[in-house]
Model the fold of this input.
Amino acid sequence: MKTPFDSVLIANRGEIAVRIARACREAGLRSVAVYSEADATAPHVRAADAAVPIGPAPSTESYLRIDALVDAARKSGAQAVHPGYGFLAENAEFAAAVERAGLVWIGPPPEAIARMGDKTAARSLAERSGVPVVPAVEELPAHPDEAVRAVRPLGYPVLVKAAAGGGGKGMRVVRNEAELPEALAGARREAESAFGDDRLFVEKYLPRPRHVEVQILADDRGTTIHLGERECSIQRRHQKIVEESPSPGVDTRLRARLVEAAISIARAVGYRNAGTVEFLVDERGEFYFLEMNTRLQVEHPVTELVAGIDLVQAQFAIASGEPLPFRQKDVVFRGHAMECRIYAEDPTRDFLPSPGRVLWLREPQGPGVRLDSGIEEDYEVPPHYDALLSKLCTWGADRETARKRMERALDEYAILGFPTCLPLLRDLVRHPAFASGKTHTHFLEEHFSGWTPRERYLEIALVAAALEAAKKAAPAREGLVRQEAPSPWVTLGRWRLGEGSRT
Done:
């Protein structure tokens, strides 16, 4: 690959920064990490060829500072910036600042980011492209009583959404008129805090839709292709936790309609680089445009596994002004892939973030397993950022093979030190409804309300901890008290199981 840059600043952290650093190395590019004071010893710092401090732990004083990131690129000699996902990845102002500094932005044009970042403007663009959208009230009256009257024709339940939103922020499900004024007030405050923009709109709430998205790639030579669809219906708090490709609920005919709609929207906005167009698919198989994510998606590995294309390498090529090295007819989809997101969250406490030190780590391996991780033993997961630790992916010739592999890989995976969502994921992929592909966005509420971890996982964790403690304690105790049984409570000090809420 010939690029106009040989050094890339990665404006992010965690597993995605590690993943991009690896892609840089494979492409022969120098990678530059950035880190806050809380991340000085983080794995992503060592994964890169160089690293630059950008400020204190709060993201508003480090990873969200455009001036600090551009300055880090200049000081480090980086000629390009990859934003990863989250933080400033979909910030048009950041993309424009990078370009004004004479650096290459590895992402879509700032104009496309700005246009698709406004959810109501994106809906209008989709409608003009002939793509259906969920019925909505886009211009809400300021007075609560007038807002209630304006929303009434939609029928309840409805979904309040932030016009500049994403990631579930500024979003409220409203089941009757009485709840609407308070939901609007709360969502408005949250939207202002998260995005600096308190504009809201209200759309009809679909009862059991699938969340299906299409990955697209577009170069600046006018070529736009798709890499198939992903289903991301398993969500908590409107945020994805399990993804797969292809969707078990999409047949050949629906797939053709979805990818055509996605490409038409991308072309209409003048898109370039990697992007994702998201849809809701109802129980009748009708679909509606949801939004466009103008960046690399967290769940991009499942597409890479079935399409055999490295999306980050493709981003490098497009940002270099090269034509896509393949056409639609060259893309061959193979098998089925699943991804489980591993979070430092306690699912028994409404997914409350649970940062802490990784005391013991056993990562899954074997055929058909890919792990994109940002942690290691003794790593202190900071409380300041998103709680995503790693992404566990499996591939198989068919969905059931991929699912069984995910069962096996999740059973092998152990993180001790704090609660994670691993126990929930183990039960989830074994659930009959998931195994049969009957997934929808309210799956967790329907099947896992009040869920608690099974005791056998606690027992497994205790045995693992005891064995590891015995291994670490053996040299020090050699010749002292050989008959004494090893105790993790003595060796490890105060700690918490990663397998549930018990301590």
